[in-house]
Design a protein that fits this description.
The protein has helices at residues 44-51, 98-108, 113-126, 142-154, 172-187, 199-205, 223-227, 245-258, 293-306, 320-347; strands at 4-15, 18-29, 33-37, 59-65, 71-73, 84-87, 160-164, 191-195, 208-213, 216-221, 234-239, 276-279, 284-288, 313-317. By secondary structure, it is α/β, with parallel strands linked by helices. Helix 2 (98-108) packs parallel to helix 4 and helix 6 (199-205) packs across helix 10. The strands form three sheets. A six-stranded mixed beta sheet has the order 6-7-8-3-9-10, with helices on both faces. The chain has a four-stranded antiparallel beta sheet with strand order 2-1-4-5, with helices on one face. The N and C termini lie far apart (49 Å). The protein has two domains: 4-227, Rossmann fold (3-Layer(aba) Sandwich), CATH 3.40.50.300; 234-317, 2-Layer Sandwich (Alpha-Beta Plaits), CATH 3.30.70. The relative contact order is 0.12.
């Protein structure tokens, strides 16, 4: 049974004539990692700042789980609510040691004094900052400050964690570490709300994705369910050796005939004028198909059985990154077109 941890009801925020957040409705269940994705100015940070009580909503309300298990108004019952942790944008700290900084936040959040030192050591170890425990934060790199920011957000062991761009400024290795840590928290049953423009990171850790544009949620679902709305469904088939140019035309023709029952018959010509393309630089066949899992399996059987003498398949996939990028791009484009059409209708 799903247990809601937070619920946004008709949430809006205006800055003068600008509607930064426009009537958002969203519910997050216990133990979920929810990704908040959208272009600059979509309303991600404004939404998070309202949840963190750094901004007051212009209208609507935010309901958060109480210690008794009920959803209660965030602004009316803050003392009885579950513990939350926040990382808002890029953190800046006073120039004190990492140890003193984390101890300050632990005391601020009423974490048991007898457990603070062990908790600090645990987090510094997890974020590979143990050697920097007694060094001033002013000497930290941007990426190290970002990891310290996540550590302070969870120093009091909250059950609900909100992170705004947690991997900003991190090198690839550090991003992997943060991703692994988010999965670790997820395994502990924590509920996590994360905003990010790094689509790969979102796709790797999140259970559901909320796509924001112009302050509105244009889609909210799992990547798999969002994928069903795509106009473009593509498989990438990498082959071992380059296809000889003089053989390519014949191979494409035979592939198109053999795979005809499975190919996308409504393919947008702006995406591709033909259902099967070959990218020589990457030695990849792009196959635009009808989208079902069963069909993906049948296509693979045909490629291996009927084209064994033409090429050897070494990879057959639809990367989640590409998948989310396509969903993101299409949803945002469709929403922009609707907004323009609405404006055009008003002018008439």
């Amino acid at each position: 049974m799903s247990v809601p941890v937070i619920k946004l009801e008709n949430l809006s925020k205006n800055f003068g004539d600008l509607k930064a957040v426009d009537n958002i409705n969203l519910e997050v269940n216990e133990g979920e990692i929810i990704g908040l994705v959208g272009p600059n100015g979509a309303g991600k940070t404004t939404t998070i700042k309202m949840i963190a009580k750094l901004l007051r909503p212009s209208s609507g309300r935010i309901l958060l789980k109480s210690r008794g298990g009920e959803l209660e108004n965030l602004r009316l019952h803050s003392r009885n609510l579950i513990e939350t942790g926040f990382l808002i944008d890029i953190p800046e700290f006073y120039d004190m040691s990492a140890n003193d900084l984390l101890k300050y936040f632990a005391l601020l959040r009423n974490y048991p004094r007898s457990k603070i030192d062990a908790r600090i050591d645990e987090l510094l170890f997890l974020f590979r900052l143990t050697d920097w425990k007694h060094k001033k934060v002013g000497k930290f790199s941007k990426g190290m400050k970002q990891k310290l920011g996540i550590a302070q957000a969870i120093i009091h062991d909250p059950s609900f964690i909100i992170l705004d761009e947690p991997q900003t400024g991190l090198d690839p290795k550090a991003r992997i570490e943060v991703r692994q840590f988010l999965k670790f928290l997820h395994g502990q049953g924590k509920t996590i709300f994360v905003a990010s423009h790094l689509l790969y990171e979102i796709s790797e850790v999140c259970d559901r994705i909320a796509l924001l544009n112009h302050g509105k949620i244009v889609a909210f679902d799992t990547i798999e369910n969002l994928d069903k709305t795509l106009k473009r469904r593509e498989i990438e088939c990498e082959v071992l050796n380059p296809i000889v140019p003089e053989n390519l035309g014949n191979i494409i023709k035979r592939l198109t005939t053999a795979l005809d029952p499975y190919l996308d018959k409504t393919l947008d010509p702006n995406v591709s004028k033909i259902p099967i393309k070959y990218v020589p630089q990457e030695q990849i066949f792009q196959i635009f198909y009808d989208g079902s899992k069963d069909v993906r399996a049948e296509i693979l059987k045909v490629l291996i059985k009927d084209f064994e003498s033409d090429f050897t398949v070494v990879s057959y996939t639809r990367p989640r990154t590409s998948q989310l990028e396509e969903i993101y791009s299409q949803m945002i484009t469709d929403d922009d077109e609707k907004a323009e059409n609405k404006k055009g209708g008003r002018k008439k």
